[in-house]
Amino acid sequence: MRSPHGDSPDARRYHQVKLKGKWLEQAGFLTGMSLVVRVMEGCLVITTQPGSRLNEVLQQSDRLSAQSRLELEQLIQGLARKEASRGASG
In 31-40, which positions are buried (b, 16+ CB within 10 angstroms) versus exposed (e)? Predict the structure, then answer.
């Protein structure tokens, strides 16, 4: 884990874990999916949000052409950014 604020001793630190790679999709994690993170002593368990309609749509998107899937992912990312900015301002 590393801090996104550099190594400055007076920088406010937030830990982050970045997961990326084709293995995520192979494991059933698609861009835009809702996730649940369970925290236990020395352990993080990450699962998809059960019953999420968005997750169902994303899982079925493998039937789409590559271009359509890319457009769907871009739409979802745009909606997520819009929702995040709405939450930050309200």
Answer: bbbeeeeeee
Burial class of residue 52 (count of CB atoms within 10 Å of its CB; 0-12, 13-18, 19+)? middle
| Chain segment 45-78, per-residue pLDDT in tens | 998 877 777 667 766 776 777 777 778 777 777 7
Domain assignment of residue 11, yes or no: no
Q: From 62, 4, 51, select the one nearest 28 (Cα to Cα).
A: 62
pLDDT at 9 over 70: no
Largest CA distance in the chain: 49
- Would 78 be classed as within a structural domain? yes
